[in-house]
């Protein structure tokens, strides 16, 4: 695989770019799928919880209506008169039954209304058609006592009572005298569980979801899963436990049997609405999302791969031609430029490089010829210094023989000057050697220009054995003699001073010669700092040479510092480190 990729830039680019584009797209697809799945689940939960709240509103209205109806019947004068009477009153009983009949017919969710006297009088009761003939007995815990002046109780009959009552939910309330507040009997209003279950069934829960209504003991009051008798939630979902909070979500079960439970505890009652949504509902929606995401990813991957292959082919085609051209190794031909982009500029650069290679090849051939000539000259140059020293020594000896001390001193100084200058190509020397070299030069110049200047040396002893770049002072002294003191026509004075300054040595050459005007001084400083060629005759060749050598060999601000005043002289100084610290 590596070998197959390594043999072609096009393959490498195609593999890397397609991989770099496909991986983010696939990752984005999985992220989108996971996000959409989570959103669909959250949407189903929120929708289910809204449905439970809507059912709560309907059931609350139903409950409030029944409780208001019970209060109205308890306070009805006919009911009070019938229950206070010592014996049954047929007329009142008939009137009350007619009234109860109207109430039952007006509410489809009312199964039965019963008024049960506390004595031996007949029970007044009317039931809806499907509940006629049923017995609506009071629950065992609905007893009336003096210690409990008022109570109401919603109850679900169980066992034999449930079979007799026919799946109802009953509200029982005590009836007391409106005059003496003495107990007179009970009022029982039963709700039709099937009607409530029908409300729950048509609630709009998504897919195969359904809603259950539980009482305070988590027994099922109504719902799709209701069976005969009072079946509790733990029977349907073993181990389930609803939190004490007013509403929430629970996940129950594993695998394909997983479900989501939503519960909402109805305020003002002890009932709880429970919504059940199978996870299969989410799975069906998620499968659609998964297929859609896979289709989008595949289409995007194919489109991106096609675009990348086209772009890579466009980029690598001229590079392939350049590779073939380079293999041929023909530098004389010019490669055509297909475009002006980076690849085109690369080919242009190659054409320029080939032209430069041809020029350099010709130059190398020429340099080889010159090198042979230089080798001969170098051979000859090895003889010249020894010949020059021997000749000067002979002249010096002849001057002494002829008792001409001036010529002897001048020749001896010249010999010392040249010997130090050549010095077998070494660049550094001790400060005292540089001073001796300058003294030889001053000796020669004082013979050439007798009685025209005096040179003073002041060298600190601690600086004498320090190393320095050689031939730095002589150009400065030459400049001070020729362009300084000799220009005044009077006897001049030049002072050379070497002194320590922190971790550096300061060299100063000062004269009392002609000096420079501010304009000339500024031009000289600019030419030194910019490295430009000075004007002819300005006398700054030596200064520029010293300045360049200082900046090239030493780090820091080691260039020349020039101060001058016209008619009063010039001061040139520089600093170098005490230990050798020069640039490579």
Automatic annotation (TrEMBL):
Q: Which SUPFAM superfamilies match?
A: ATPase domain of HSP90 chaperone/DNA topoisomerase II/histidine kinase
Upper classification of the organism: Bacteria, Bacillati, Bacillota, Bacilli, Bacillales
Source organism of the structure: Paenibacillus terreus
EC number(s) recorded for this UniProt protein: 2.7.13.3
Q: What is this protein called?
A: histidine kinase
Any one GO MF term held by the record is:
protein histidine kinase activity
Reactions catalysed, as given in the entry = ATP + protein L-histidine = ADP + protein N-phospho-L-histidine
Q: Where is the Histidine kinase domain?
A: 469-580
Signal peptide (UniProt feature, chain positions): none
| Start and end residues of each HAMP domain | 313-362
Q: What EC class does the entry list?
A: transferase
Q: Where in the cell is it found?
A: Cell membrane
What SMART domains does the entry give? HATPase_c
UniProt keyword Repeat, yes or no: no
């Amino acid at each position: 695989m590596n070998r197959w990729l390594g043999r072609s830039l096009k393959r490498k680019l195609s593999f890397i770019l397609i991989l770099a584009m496909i991986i983010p797209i696939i990752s984005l697809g999985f992220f989108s799928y996971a996000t959409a799945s989570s959103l669909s689940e959250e949407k189903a939960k929120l929708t289910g919880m809204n449905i439970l709240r809507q059912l709560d509103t309907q059931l609350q209205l139903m409950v409030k209506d029944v409780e208001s109806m019970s209060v109205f019947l308890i306070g009805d004068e006919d009911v009070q008169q019938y229950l206070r009477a010592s014996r049954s009153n047929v007329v009142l009983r008939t009137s009350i039954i007619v009234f109860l009949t109207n109430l039952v017919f007006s509410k489809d969710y009312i199964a039965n209304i019963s008024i049960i006297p506390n004595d031996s009088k007949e029970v007044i009761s009317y039931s809806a058609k499907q509940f006629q003939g049923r017995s609506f007995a009071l629950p065992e815990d609905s007893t009336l006592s003096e210690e409990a002046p008022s109570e109401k109780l919603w109850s679900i009959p169980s066992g034999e009572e449930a079979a007799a009552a026919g799946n109802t939910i009953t509200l029982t309330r005590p009836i007391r005298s409106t005059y003496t507040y003495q107990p007179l009997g009970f009022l029982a209003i039963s709700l039709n569980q099937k009607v409530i279950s029908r409300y729950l069934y048509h609630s709009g829960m998504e897919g195969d979801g359904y809603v259950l209504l539980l009482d305070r003991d988590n027994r099922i009051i109504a719902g799709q899963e209701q069976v005969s008798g009072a079946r509790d939630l733990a029977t349907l979902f073993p181990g389930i436990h609803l939190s004490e909070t007013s509403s929430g979500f629970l996940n129950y079960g594993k695998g394909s049997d997983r479900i989501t439970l939503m519960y909402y505890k109805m305020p003002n009652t002890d009932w709880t609405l429970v919504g059940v949504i199978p996870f299969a509902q989410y799975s069906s929606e998620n499968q659609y999302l998964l297929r859609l995401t896979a289709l989008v990813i595949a289409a995007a991957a194919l489109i991106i791969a096609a675009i990348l292959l086209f772009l890579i082919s466009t980029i690598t085609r001229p590079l392939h031609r350049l590779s073939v051209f380079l293999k041929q190794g023909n530098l004389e031909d010019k490669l055509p430029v297909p475009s002006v982009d980076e690849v085109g500029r690369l080919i242009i650069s190659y054409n320029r490089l080939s032209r430069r290679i041809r020029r350099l090849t010709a130059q190398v051939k020429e340099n080889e010829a010159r090198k042979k000539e230089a080798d001969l000259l170098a051979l000859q140059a090895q003889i010249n210094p020894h010949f020059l020293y021997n000749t000067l020594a002979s002249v010096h000896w002849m001057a002494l023989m002829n008792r001409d001390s001036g010529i002897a001193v001048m020749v001896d100084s010249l010999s010392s000057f040249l010997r130090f200058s050549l010095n077998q190509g070494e660049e550094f020397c001790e400060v005292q050697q540089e001073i001796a070299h300058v003294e030889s030069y001053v000796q020669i110049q004082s013979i050439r220009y007798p009685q025209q200047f005096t040179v003073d040396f002041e060298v600190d002893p601690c600086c004498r054995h320090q190393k320095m770049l050689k031939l730095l002072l002589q150009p400065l002294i030459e400049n001070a003699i020729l362009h300084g003191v000799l220009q005044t026509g009077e006897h001049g004075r030049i002072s050379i001073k070497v002194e320590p300054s922190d971790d550096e040595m300061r060299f100063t050459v000062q004269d009392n010669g002609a000096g420079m005007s501010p304009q000339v001084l500024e031009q000289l400083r600019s030419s030194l700092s910019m490295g430009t060629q000075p004007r002819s005759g300005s006398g700054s060749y030596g200064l520029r040479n010293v300045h360049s050598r200082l900046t090239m060999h030493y780090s820091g601000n080691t260039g020349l510092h020039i101060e001058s005043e016209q008619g009063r002289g010039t001061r040139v100084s520089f600093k170098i480190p005490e230990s050798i610290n020069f640039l490579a």
